[in-house]
Structures are given as C-alpha cells and as structure tokens.
Specification:
- Residues 1-19 form the signal peptide.
- Keywords: Signal.
- The chain has one helix at residues 2-18, and strands spanning 32-39, 49-56, 63-65, 71-79, 84-88, 98-100, 105-112, 114-118.
- It contains one helix and eight strands; from the N terminus they run αββββββββ.
- The longest helix has 17 residues, at 2-18.
- It has a single domain (28-118), classed as Sandwich (Gamma-B Crystallin, domain 1).
- It is mainly β and 122 residues long.
- The chain has a four-stranded antiparallel beta sheet with strand order 2-1-4-7, with no helix packed on it. A four-stranded antiparallel beta sheet has the order 3-8-5-6, with no helix packed on it.
C-alpha cells in the first residue's frame, strides 16, 4: 500500500516537473533593443498615445514603416547596447531624417512615416 502511494506521488511530481515551461534563450531576434512610444498628436500628449513599440532584433538596422498609424510625435523610452533611433517623414527612411534622443519626445508639425533603429553590435 505504501509502495503504491510512494510510486503515485513520485510519478505525479515527475510529470509536474516535466510540464514546466522551458525558458527561451535570448537571441538577437527575440531581444528587445529599443522601446518607443508613439503619439497621434504633437508633443507626446497623453490623449494621442498609440502605445509602445518594442523593436526586436529582426527590425534593427533596417527601415520600418509605421504603417497605418498617424504618428506626429515619438518618445524614445529605453534602449540597450547604445542603440540609436531616427524617424523619417516618408515610408522609406529617405526624407526628413531626425534623430530621437533617449528619454525625450520628438515632435513635428508633419507626420512621421518610418523609423530606423541602429545598433552597431548587430
């Protein structure tokens, strides 16, 4: 009787340990290098807050369009590895380039269409 109870308890413990999630190792593709907050109005006003944009490795060192969002201001909230951010007035990272400093709001009277995150380590 005790043997059956012990065996059942051991099997239950083994099953619960094996069901634990396996942590995903950090890779450049799943590392968040930059966090931006986008706004649909000037001066990073709370009423126009579109939410945060986490930029992961697949989107670093290349042009990325904001898509259907109307973005008039951008706050550069956080970065790792000394990454920098530039925003552009077109969708192809060609026109109206402006750098965004960390912990600041970049605002313009024109709409931003795209961004680039530059990380020299990648």
């Amino acid at each position: 009787m005790h043997f059956t109870t012990l065996l059942t308890s051991t099997l239950a413990l083994t099953m619960s340990v094996s069901a634990a999630p396996t942590p995903v190792p950090a890779t450049p593709e799943n590392t968040r290098y930059v966090q931006l907050r986008l706004y649909s109005d000037a001066d990073c006003g709370q009423d126009g807050n579109l939410g945060e944009l986490g930029v992961y490795g697949d989107y670093v060192n290349k042009c990325n369009a904001f898509g259907d969002y109307t973005v008039e201001s951008v706050r550069f909230e956080a970065a790792i590895n000394n990454c920098t951010v530039s925003v552009y007035t077109d969708d192809a990272c060609q026109a109206g380039a402006q750098g965004v400093a960390l912990d600041t709001c970049l605002s313009s009277s024109t709409q931003y269409g795209s961004y680039q995150v530059f990380c020299s380590q990648l």
